[in-house]
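WARN retry 2 of 3 for item q-0093 after timeout on previous attempt; input resubmitted unchanged.
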Amino acid sequence: MEDGLTKTINDLKRTITQTVFIAPHRAGYPFIAGFAVVTAFLAMLSTVLGFAGLVLTLWCVYFFRDPQRAVPQRDGLVIAPADGRITQIAEAVPLPKELRSNDEVLSDDDEGDFTRISIFLSVFDVHIQRNPLTGLVKRVVYKPGIFLNAGNDLASMENERCAALIARPDGQHLAVVQIAGLIARRIICDLQEGQDVKSGERYGLIRFGSRVDIYLPKGVAPQVCVGQRTIGGETILADLTSREPARDAILV
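OK item q-0093 returned
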């Protein structure tokens, strides 16, 4: 049995390990190595410059951190694909034009009646994206574009982005869109058309500040509010099997 002090110390060690010393995503290694090389060069010129480079290198390691998450397991749950702050919930919006079609994937009615939840990622948020639900990837489309601030209303349709359409076994469709921001100009998406995915699995990364949009199908009310912070892979955005109304929130 651990005594009180030993338990406290062990709990502190676990907390530090789980929140600070987190292994980075593999996509971050080239950037971390680059920062480290520049830091070594700066250190030869000046101790102050070397220290500044070390701080930036450690920040780069922190930025690309890839923490484990406890993913809720129940059919119909839509899980947040990213860490960040919900900046907008817009009803009855069309899917991004690259996901619209006249083929068998979606009907005309399906294409234009969604609720969009926008999650803004600052440079301090985890930038790994995770699948919002279990299903089949029907379409993945990369779209070049401009680099407006990710908080801009036009960013959903004008910025560089990568959109994916996922279908549940019952035929419901949900879209998730990675959007590059003013600083972020590199989107990584590992999803492939025809791929079976599970809720909470990692599927992509956006380098530096950015945004992720989720499109909920008609009749599904979001269970989050504007201003709320999300944890990718853990926060429940909606329940596709529920008819619970949308929630309100107040600042306290």
